[in-house]
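SMP-30/Gluconolactonase/LRE-like region domain-containing protein
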Amino acid sequence: MADVQAKFHKHQASKFDEILGANPKVSILADARDLPLYHEACIYHAPSRSVFVTSNQLVASSDQANAATANKFVKLTRIYDPEPNLAAGPHVTKVENITFPAIAGAMLNGGVNLDSESILLCAQGSRDPKDPSGIIKLTVPSVASGDTVFESVIESFHGIPFNSVNDVIVHPHDMSIWFTDPPYGFHQGIRPPPQLPNHVYRYDPKNGSVRAVADRFTRPNGLCFSPELDTLYVTDTGAVHGSPSVPLDQTGPSHIYAFDVVLKNGCSEPFLTNRRVFAYAPGKVPDGIKCDTRGNVYAGCTDGIEVWDRSGVLIGTVNIPGGISNFCFGEKGIMYACNENKLLKVQFDGGEVKGALLGM
């Protein structure tokens, strides 16, 4: 694997050094050359040491043109990170295209682990109501066997179609599903006009309830829980409009908001309270967001991966040319990061950094 000339910018040196270790490095795990195959989702599947990634929107060939998706499509790819074998020499990364016809119009985006055998993916959908949209579930063993099927988890808010769901997380205690729903699909020409505000939603699969739990976003995007599960972080990437004809708004939202997750007396489901600005990303457009087990907050931005402590103080940046849209923690201090045409492997030296999502 070739190394990337990343820079580690230390805003708070002592705190960032605890994360970086003595010899951090960034290498290329997979390179798609000119194709933006490594854009979103970035879901680490520990049993197989593989990462599921969705592409950016690709231009369909003339024989695959589809007006419902503005003649675009999204690929779903699985990349394996094999154990190094020094005796066998340099290893070759295995990359699988696991896109299948049933989700051709789903225009997949973010995703998360549901359990050891299944993952959830955000289906933005298309202008054709028959195409999958909302949250769908894939069973990993069926993907491995080539017999790929999916299950629709939730498609609408009480019959009203979602705008274009973007990112999703699962609460590990009650298995409730939380997701964001900005209007990017409409501005990208793949979805009908929005019928809902730009909300954060909570869906409870046990009783089928779906609730809007946070509002007042321009474009809600990534979300994650703190290690203690008492805080929800949500990014707002409103600086990016979505239409290719509208430039980046340098003064638009590039914020991370924090909410307290509160279960009030007599209530069976939690509320989000005490909305506050947690941070403004100087690198702009904080997309995917994760916490480590120490409570530090990481976000993929246009300058790479920015890291804040739990007080909202920017402690460091892993500067990566081309920026990072989404990422995930692996094992032993490893992070996988989507750099559009490259999937990067970030190795924090010492292996002490663990993602709160998987506890690895």
